[in-house]
């Protein structure tokens, strides 16, 4: 979505004219590569090129856009040492823990069916 604004609670976003916080979060986190960037920064802070490498060589323009959005959303901060998650970003990862647990159960269930 070139030229799209960073979703913010209280402002209309894709799928919601009300700007409910959960809808703004779903819009932001549903953008291509966003959760991958968050996940990689949760693993370890990184500079732009290192983060691009860890994200399977995503295009530099998409990475720059995602980092700008995540920075504007206060999930990521960048400085001379690179990019890292903020306290709010770490809270996001903690909120995703149930999804991580579910994905492991899903994997086991799929493997059972394949056996």
Automatic annotation (TrEMBL):
GO terms for molecular function: DNA binding. Coiled coil: none annotated. It comes from the Bacteria. Residues 20-111 form the HTH hxlR-type domain. Keywords: DNA-binding, Transcription, Transcription regulation. InterPro entries: HTH_HxlR, WH-like_DNA-bd_sf, WH_DNA-bd_sf. PANTHER family: HTH-TYPE TRANSCRIPTIONAL REGULATOR YODB (PTHR33204:SF37), TRANSCRIPTIONAL REGULATOR, MARR FAMILY (PTHR33204). This is DNA-binding HxlR family transcriptional regulator.
